[in-house]
Every structure is written in C-alpha cells, then in structure tokens.
C-alpha cells in the first residue's frame, strides 16, 4: 500500500504517480488511463487495446462526418 497526497495543479488537484509504480503498471506519460469511481474508491487503469481501438474509431468517424465536404473537395 502506498499513501499519497494530492498536489496543486493550477485550479485542480493532481495525483503524482511515481516512476516505480509506472514501471510496475507498464505505463508512461502518454498512456491513456481509465478512471472509475466505486463508492469512495478511485480506480485507475490503462485503457485496453479494444478500448483504445474503439476510441480511435469513434474519433475517426466524428472527424470524417464533420469534414465530409472538405474531403469531397480535396478528392476532386
């Protein structure tokens, strides 16, 4: 068990994850993390491959829909 305090980050609070813990979880600064609240527990876990793929697909569809006309003009 590890005891940590939140630190001030602008108008928010941040939880610092030590390098040893990051190595143990096999994550780095660029890893997307999923936060889940379970009662008074905060669960932090890296996104799985399926979740990352689904997220990329959702974002891609949104961009294609938003920029459809632009893509049509560029294709000409």
Features of this protein?
alpha+beta; Pemi-like Protein 1, Chain: D; elongated; two-stranded antiparallel ribbon; 76 residues; two-stranded antiparallel sheet
Structure description:
- The structure is a single chain.
- By secondary structure, the chain is α+β, with helices and mostly antiparallel strands.
- It has a single domain (7-75), classed as Pemi-like Protein 1, Chain: D (Ribbon).
- It is built from three helices and four strands.
- It has helices at residues 19-25, 49-66, 68-75, and strands at residues 7-9, 12-14, 33-38, 41-46.
- A two-stranded antiparallel ribbon has the order 1-2.
- Strand 1 (7-9) and strand 2 (12-14) form a beta hairpin.
- The protein is elongated, with a radius of gyration of 19 Å.
Short description:
This protein is α+β, with helices and mostly antiparallel strands and 76 residues long. The chain has helices at residues 19-25, 49-66, 68-75; strands at residues 7-9, 12-14, 33-38, 41-46.
Q: Name the shape in a single word.
A: elongated
Strands, total number: 4
Q: List low-confidence stretches.
A: none
Largest sheet: 2 strands, antiparallel
Span of the ends, CA to CA:
60 Å
Strand order of the largest sheet: 1-2
CATH structural fold name: Pemi-like Protein 1, Chain: D
Bin the strand percentage: 15-25%
Mean pLDDT: 89
Radius of gyration: 19 Å
The helix content, as a percent range, equals 40-55%
Number of contiguous helices: 3
**Topology as a string of helices (H) and strands (E):** EEHEEHH
CATH architecture: Ribbon
Classify the secondary structure makeup into a structural class: alpha+beta
Which CATH first-tier class would you pick? Answer: Mainly Beta
Could you say how many structural domains there are in total? 1
């Amino acid at each position: 068990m590890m005891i940590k305090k939140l630190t001030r980050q602008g108008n928010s609070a941040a939880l610092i994850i030590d390098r040893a813990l990051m190595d143990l979880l096999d994550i780095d600064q660029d890893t997307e993390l999923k936060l889940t609240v379970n009662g008074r527990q905060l669960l932090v876990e890296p996104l799985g491959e399926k979740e990352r793929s689904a997220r990329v697909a959702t974002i891609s569809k949104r961009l294609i829909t938003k920029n459809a006309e632009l893509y049509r003009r560029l294709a000409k």
